[in-house]
Amino acid sequence: MTNLVSTPTQPVMPDMASAPTFAVISGEQVQQALDGREKQIVELVEATYRLHGAGDSVNPPSYFLRFPDRPTSRIIALPASIGGSVHVDGLKWISSFPGNVRAGLPRASAVLILNDPGTGYPFACLESSIISATRTAASAALAADWLSRSRPRPSRVGFFGTGLIARYIHTFLAGTGWTFDTIGVHDLAADSASGFCGYLRQSGTTAEVTVHDSAEDLIRVSDLVVFATVAGEPHVTDPSLFSHNPLVLHVSLRDLAPEVLMASANFVDDVEHCLKAGTSPHLTEQRTGNRDFLNGTLDDVMCGRAVPPTDRPVVFSPFGLGVLDLAVGKYVYDEAARAGNLRLIDNFFHDLRRYG
C-alpha cells in the first residue's frame, strides 16, 4: 500500500521516534517536475560539472551487464555520489534493448535509486528514462553554449538520429534561447525522421526543416551537428565532411571514426570515463597510442583552462556521468516533496530493531 503524503524536502532518517521512509516517483511525476525547467536544469548540470571538476564527487566506472545470447542488449549500472547542496549518493540502472523498437517500445528504460549519505538507506526510487534523457540534453545544451563562445554561434543545426534523445536535445536548446535558421534531419528509419519532423512542427520552431537522404548532405550544411544514434561502431569516416569546422555534439559516442577525431579539437565530460568501452575517443587512443588528440574537458572550458579553436571542427563526446543523474533526480525528489506528492511505501523497511 502507498500513501500520498506531504513531506519535507529531505528524507526522513531513522532516530528514536521514526523509521526511514521510501518513496516511489513515477515517470509522470518526473515529467511534471522537469517540464519547462530547461534553464534551471542546465544551470544545475553546470553546477554539477563544476563540483565534479573540483573533486566533490565520487563517480566510479560504469558497469556493463552483457548477455552472450543477446549481444546487442545491455544493462548499465552507474553508481555515484555528489556533494555540494545536492549531497546524495545513488545508482542509475539503465537498460538498452534495441529490439524494443520493433515492438513499439523505447529502446531504453531506467530507474534511479537515491541513498541518504548519512545512513546509507535508500529513500527513493525514480523512473529514470526521463531523467537520463534530461541530463543528457542539458549537458548537450550546456556544451553547445560554452563551446561556441569563442566562435560564431551556429544557426544551422543537423540531427543525425531522431529518437527520444534528439527530441530532448532540441527542447533544451530551444528552452535555453537557441534559435536556428534551418534544421536538418537524417535517420535510417524514415518513420523516425517523419515523427521528429512532426515534433518540430508542434514545437513552434520557425526554422526551415529539411529531411536529408544522406548523412553527408546533413553534415555539410550544418554548423551544429547532433549525433544521437544507436551506432555500435564508427560509420562516419571522412574528415573532409567537417571541413567547414562545425560544432559537433557527439552524444552517441560511437559514430565518428578516429580519422575524424584526429582532425578535430576534442572535448569530453570526463577523460577516464570516455576513453573506454569502444567509444570513438577510446578507439582513437588505441589508434594513436596516446591522448594528445584531447583538448580537455567541458569543465576545463568553463574554468578557462581550455579554449575551443575556430579553425578546426570542435567535437564534444560526453560519456554521461552518474553524478548528473543524481543531481537531476534529487531535484525531482525535492520538487515532489515540496508539492506534497511523494508516494511513500508503507513499512518498506522491515524489522528495524537491531537486536530483534
Can you walk me through this structure?
Pfam families: OCD_Mu_crystall. InterPro entries: NAD(P)-bd_dom_sf, ODC_Mu_crystall, ODC_N, SbnB. This is 2,3-diaminopropionate biosynthesis protein SbnB. It comes from Streptomyces hirsutus. The chain has helices at residues 27-34, 38-53, 129-147, 164-175, 190-203, 215-220, 258-262, 271-274, 280-288, 298-302, 322-338; strands at residues 2-5, 23-25, 57-58, 63-66, 74-82, 88-96, 108-115, 122-127, 156-160, 182-186, 208-211, 224-227, 247-250, 265-268, 294-297, 314-317, 342-345. The relative contact order is 0.18. The model is unreliable at 1-9 and 12-17 (pLDDT under 50). 32% of the residues lie in helices and 23% in strands. By secondary structure, it is of the alpha/beta class. Strands 1, 2, 3, 4, 5, 6, 7, 8 and 17 form a 9-stranded mixed sheet that branches. The protein has an 8-stranded parallel sheet with strand order 11-10-9-12-13-16-14-15. Helix 1 packs parallel to helix 3 (129-147) and helix 3 crosses helix 11 (322-338). It is built from 11 helices and 17 strands.
Contiguous runs where pLDDT drops below 50 for at least 5 residues:
1-9, 12-17
Task: Give me the count of strands.
Answer: 17
**How many distinct helices?**
11
Coarse structural class: alpha/beta
N- and C-termini, Cα separation:
24 Å
Task: Indicate the proportion of strand residues.
Answer: 15-25%
The mean pLDDT is: 93
Order of helices and strands: EEHHEEEEEEHEHEHEHEEHEHHEHEHE
